[in-house]
Amino acid sequence: MAKTYDPNNVFARILRGEIPCKKVLETEHALAFHDINPQAPTHILVIPKGAYVDIDDFSARATETEIAGLFRAVGEVARGAGAAEPGYRILSNCGEDANQEVPHLHIHVFAGRRLGPMIVKG
Ligand code: 5GP
């Protein structure tokens, strides 16, 4: 069953210009901005402009153009931050077990330091 999108989530409000963000890149299909609570020297969020709850929803419903647009933007943001070398990490939390806080798909781009292990063992 399709997930219900909350049009008042904080990233939807950023997309509508109702609350500010520190913009990094805007394209036809994506917006990138600095995370308000950075976990690394570079911590940028890349979001699709369309109303998608998470990567599950996006991968099921988005058009090829939207998917390409989002991931082209991720690469462009990372290159623009000078992170292609020595490297960076992308991450997208999906749902409750992943502690997703904001119910609009976002790709985190972390860079600027050694990022440590991929995940805490549990
Ligand atoms: P999640 O846990 O959903 O993967 O990540 C949500 C991210 O959104 C967090 O890293 C959090 O700091 C960031 N965030 C939450 N509210 C805002 C906001 O109003 N502006 C910006 N720029 N980032 C936000």
UniProtKB/TrEMBL annotation:
This is Histidine triad nucleotide-binding protein. InterPro entries: Histidine_triad_CS, Histidine_triad_HIT, HIT-like, HIT-like_sf. A motif (Histidine triad motif) lies at residues 104-108. Signal peptide: none annotated. Residues 10-120 form the HIT domain. It comes from the Bacteria. It comes from Azospirillum isscasi. PANTHER family: HISTIDINE TRIAD HIT PROTEIN. SUPFAM superfamilies: HIT-like (SSF54197).
